[in-house]
Amino acid sequence: MTLEEIRALVATDLAAVDDVIRQRLKSAVPLVDQIAEHIIAGGGKRLRPLLVVLAGRACGLRASHIEAAAFIEFIHTATLLHD
Q: What Cα–Cα distance (Å) separates residue 9 from each residue in 15, 76, 82?
């Protein structure tokens, strides 16, 4: 299976991760909204949230893995901003 085929299997969950990121970073400050869009559309393979979603699905989770995947993406982005 290719990465895109795997991604297609959990596309709904990955879209939900994007929604959580947008919701958590919703702000009246335009820069914060721009950061949210950068996290979502900034490019890259976004393997971290994909792996969390796949692991969650493998363990039978149906919701909490979405929050965890968004959290992992926040941590990753924070480490990039910190550098």
A: 12, 23, 33
